[in-house]
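Example (one chain per record):
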Amino acid sequence: MSETATETPTPPSSTPAPGTEGESAPVQSSSTQSSPSGSSPPQGAPADGAKTKGPDLQSVWRESRELLWRWRGRLVIGLVLLVIGRIAGLVTPASAKWIIDDVIGNGRLDLLWPIATAAAIAAVLSAGTGFALSILLGVAAQRAINDLRLKVQAHVARLPVRYFEEHKTGELITRVVNDAEGIRNLVGSGFVQLVGGALSASISMAVLFYLNWMLTLMTLFFLGAFAFIMAKGFASLRPLFRERNKLLADINGRLTEMFGGIRVVKAYTSEKREQRIFAHNTHAMLRMGVKSMVGVSTINSIAGLLFGMMGLTMGILGAYQVVEGKMTTGDLVTYVLFTGMMVAPLVQISSIGTQITEAFAGLDRIREVLREDPEWDYRRRGQRVRKVQGDVVFDDVTFAYKPGVPVLKNVSFKAPAGTTTALVGPSGAGKSTIISLVMAFNRPQEGRILVDGTPLVELDTHDFRSHLGIVLQDNFLFDGTVRENIAYSRPTASDEEVLEAARIAHCDDFVRGFPQGYETTIGERGVKVSGGQRQRLAIARAILADPAILILDEATSSLDSESEEKIQDGLEQLLQGRTTFVIAHRLSTIRNADQILVLDDGVLVERGTHDELLDLEGRYKDLYDRQYRLELNRFINPGEDFTPKLKKARPEAPKNDRRPQF
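Predicted structure:
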């Protein structure tokens, strides 16, 4: 490769830049750079093409146990209350034998009021423990859901940029909000009711064995068949619930896209098309919902049939037992009541089992997210970065989004601290990829990037980014006030500092025209302000950050000529003493850059100042002349990339070429 600078840089092979070995493990992220010609992959293309294997049932069960153990205190108290309530609930059916055989059969009215009093006390005790259990576990469930949402959101926020480009926003929202809701059935009443139901069934079973072991053995046969059906049924339902959650995430993702791009939808009269897409997705979810409902209904129906057959058999055999004198009428009535006390919890268990199966499906999906490796971790931080001078070096950097398809090829340059480096070239040349590497969104497969002499891969990513400021082409503003958006880069800034940044960026002129001034809410993505105003607010946000390294991606692209002239003074003040990287499509905006890097197809073909590159009469001058002619012949929208596609870069410059070699 060649350059146009007056000095001749030393080849990296002979005098390597200071630091350690080059970076090799790419962060799973993606630049926004793409190329119509295919030189760059689509946004979000995976670096390795591999998919993360979903967690198995063992992993989900381990996660469930951890969750239950964390809330063991409330669960133990809940189980104690439940045991008290269930035992109290046994008093009423147990009293039936004495009322029928002794009070009615033998005329012992003296036993009636003690039995009635005991039953009344048991009823009150059962109701009180039920209320306390509901409140205790309900609050625990809400806190558990809140904690899990916080955990998932914090983890997702630390994932690489590429992960967000591969997954729809609505899908991620579903993972954080909806999937976490399922654990209500684990920490809440679901798990305790499951244990309580098993306890009630066990106590009732013991009473039934005491009353008539032959009838109870017959009952166990039906219960064994019920357990087998439950196990098979829930195993088949779990994938259905998981798929239903996935479809819900797809629906949320599409709706988020449609609402976010509603102006495009309306401009191209695509309401019907979006309605058809939404209907297709909802019908798919409807079919999945019908399948799950049919499965649940089938399980419940078979269970009902089994219990009906059990009741019929028990009635026939019980009648014979009473007639033959082996059981009293009170024994049979008590047996029937305790059979109901045993069957009811088992039926409830089938319903709770469905809910817990749904919870497991949600934990499956949450587990997938938590298994993704974050780009930085509080527990494994790199070298802390207290201060950044801004000296940036690319040392023979090669980067590819897809293996074997490099979008940067052996790029080497140095951006000294406090200087401005402009990146020019046609779309797909690699400009935005260089920016993403500087911002640590990606890591090169070959070569290394040094910041103040230290390999970027060794620095703590979170600390390093705190010294960056960005103004992108598509500036994102939050649904908050003007002041909140400017102060987003430094929330602790005083009102005076916010106003000063706004004045430098020429925001103060239009903000004071708002009814509420700096407390005016600008809407989601800043829809209540114009494109130029959004751009100036983003510049003010970058000014307030006071960064050591500044990224400007067509910072004046959305400004008219008058606004652009106003902002240039502010930008000149902002650039002083900062290492700045500028992506520019209009070459007239980078004349004062300390160095201009000309990229073509991932190759750095020229480097120098504006005047040096024009004197060289090479690629840059050819691009500049063509652009100048285009500007004369047609109207160019602000920020439009009209740079012509250059010819393929030569691997070497001719011997008589006066451009020095890297």
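Caption: The longest helix spans residues 271-323.
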